[in-house]
From TrEMBL:
Main location, first listed in the record: membrane
UniProt entry keywords in alphabetical sequence: Cell inner membrane, Cell membrane, Membrane, Protein transport, Translocation, Transmembrane, Transmembrane helix, Transport
Species per Swiss-Prot/TrEMBL record: Roseateles subflavus
Signal peptide boundaries: none
Pfam families found in the cross-reference section: TatA_B_E (PF02416)
Phylogenetic lineage: Bacteria, Pseudomonadati, Pseudomonadota, Betaproteobacteria, Burkholderiales
Gene name in the database record: tatB
Record's protein name: Sec-independent protein translocase protein TatB
InterPro entries for the chain: TatA/B/E, TatB
């Protein structure tokens, strides 16, 4: 890169002042600064685009590696399942599983035998009141009226 020191910049400024003149020098300096800013932004955009494309290529490589690893794992799992199935079939054949007439019975319904009414009825009233268990059936309107604050006029 070009390296400009203070002395070189002062020399360039003095020559520009003589050649361009003091009236147009500020406008030319602003234009030159504006063009330099555009050039820097363009270079930064190009660098960012190159970095993004490099990262995209790296991600594609990682994706391919991940897919290969997943395929390998799937194949190994499938091989293990097939081996286990064959071993099970061989064992089943040696036991005589094909000709056996074993069929499990369908499950029958059995009542759980919970006595929740008895349990709720055995609870003392003072405990129900302390825990906030409702002892009487009450309509929704009655419950709202019960807890509505009194109106003051």
């Amino acid at each position: 890169m070009l390296d400009f020191g203070f002395d070189k910049l002062a020399l360039i400024g003095a020559v520009a002042l003589i050649v361009i003149g003091p009236e147009r020098l500020p406008k030319v300096a602003r234009t030159a600064g504006h063009l330099m800013g555009k050039a820097r932004r363009y270079v930064a955009d190009v660098k960012a685009e190159v970095n993004r494309s490099m990262e995209l290529e790296e991600l594609k490589k990682m994706k391919g590696q991940f897919e290969d690893a997943a395929r390998d794992v799937e194949q190994s799992v499938q091989q293990e399942v097939n081996a286990a199935t064959q071993a099970f079939d061989q064992t089943w054949q040696s036991i005589g599983g094909e000709g056996s007439s074993y069929e499990p019975l369908p499950p029958s319904y059995r009542h759980p035998g919970k006595k929740w009414r008895v349990k709720r009825g055995a609870m003392p009233l003072w405990y129900k009141q302390q825990q906030g268990v409702r002892r009487h059936v009450q309509s929704g309107a009655a419950r709202v009226a019960r807890f509505r604050p009194p109106t003051r006029y």
